[in-house]
Amino acid sequence: MARFEKVVICGVGLIGGSFALALKAAGLVGEVVGLGRRSETLEDALHLGIIDRIGADWSDALNDADMVFLGMPVGQMEAVLLSMVPYLSDHTLITDGGSTKTDVVASARAALGARIGQFVPGHPIAGAERSGPSAAQPELFQGRRVVLTPLAENSPACVDRVRVAWEACGAQVCNLTPERHDRTFAAVSHLPHLLAYALVHEIADRENADQLFSFAASGFRDFTRIASSHPEMWRDICLANRPALLAELDAYLTQLLRIRVLLASSDGPGLEILFDTARKARDAWFGGQGVTSEE
Ligand SMILES: NC(=O)c1ccc[n+]([C@@H]2O[C@H](COP(=O)([O-])OP(=O)(O)OC[C@H]3O[C@@H](n4cnc5c(N)ncnc54)[C@H](O)[C@@H]3O)[C@@H](O)[C@H]2O)c1
Ligand SMILES: O=C(O)C(=O)C[C@]1(C(=O)O)C=C[C@@H](O)C=C1
């Protein structure tokens, strides 16, 4: 397997840090250079052994770099790409881990111009509600999917190189178009985050919030875990995927109204059918993840 002698991670948090650690564990990388917004974060990443050194600037970091991984919130990507492009050489591959793809591809086209073929967009479907380098783990991507949304301008060799890197991290790679990607994740990732934030916010706003939280147990914990996720990251994702997310929100509101009608009319059989259908679908999905559900 061809090694990456020098990888630059710009945005060394949960995802960028885990990618670096996984590549290191696979023995696929020589030197990992970190760049970022805050020097304290980069110092942490250095002390945790995620990066081998902190890049002085783009010129230093990109010198002889084989690959650059963008691990910052999607709203930052265009500015970051614009700042790196003057120092980019022909052989350096760029990829990212952003949770939305249509906007990231548009940002990359605007910033990279004729160099767009060097950018292979990606998204690991693995993560956590924790952020920063201290949350990074080498096994985060083991057995998880990574979606690539290759561009017409990408050479098959570039796409293959990014696929190989993710496979070395233990991931299974598949391809989607950016539009299909964004519609899919609006439904199964972005909407759930919006709902978790909404529920916690609604409870927290009440006068007796402390008392309510004191009784909240595992059901509340499981439903709301992802409301502890990074607010800036989720602001950017929601705004970037606004049309698809609004459509999912409308579908969910329709479902809630349907449940409201069943409840208001004390329609026990109707509620039970709906719950049973949902439980079967959830169990089938969960079982397919290689985890057995509880009765
Ligand atoms: N958290 C998840 O579960 C998850 C999963 C898959 C993909 N993603 C995506 O991965 C990316 C990173 O998410 P994360 O969870 O690792 O976040 P994180 O907060 O752990 O890390 C982001 C890092 O980017 C840095 N950063 C922010 N702005 C920057 C800039 N302008 N230039 C350089 N560095 C900058 C931050 O300082 C931080 O170190 C996001 O695009 C997110 O959508 C997140
Ligand atoms: O496990 C979590 O905390 C996540 O939210 C991970 C999760 C998701 O499954 O929705 C979040 C955002 C991503 O872009 C990919 C994965």
UniProtKB/TrEMBL annotation:
SUPFAM superfamilies: 6-phosphogluconate dehydrogenase C-terminal domain-like, NAD(P)-binding Rossmann-fold domains. Transmembrane segments: none annotated. Belongs to the prephenate/arogenate dehydrogenase family. Keywords: Amino-acid biosynthesis, Aromatic amino acid biosynthesis, NAD, Oxidoreductase, Tyrosine biosynthesis. It holds the Pfam family PDH_N. It is an enzyme of class 1 (oxidoreductase). It comes from the Bacteria. GO terms for biological process: tyrosine biosynthetic process. InterPro entries: 6-PGluconate_DH-like_C_sf, NAD(P)-bd_dom_sf, PDH_C, PDH_N, Preph/Arog_dehydrog, Prephen_DH. It catalyses: prephenate + NAD(+) = 3-(4-hydroxyphenyl)pyruvate + CO2 + NADH. Its EC number is 1.3.1.12. This is prephenate dehydrogenase. Pathway: Amino-acid biosynthesis; L-tyrosine biosynthesis; (4-hydroxyphenyl)pyruvate from prephenate (NAD(+) route): step 1/1. The keyword Oxidoreductase applies. Residues 5-293 form the Prephenate/arogenate dehydrogenase domain. GO terms for molecular function: NAD+ binding; prephenate dehydrogenase (NAD+) activity; prephenate dehydrogenase (NADP+) activity.
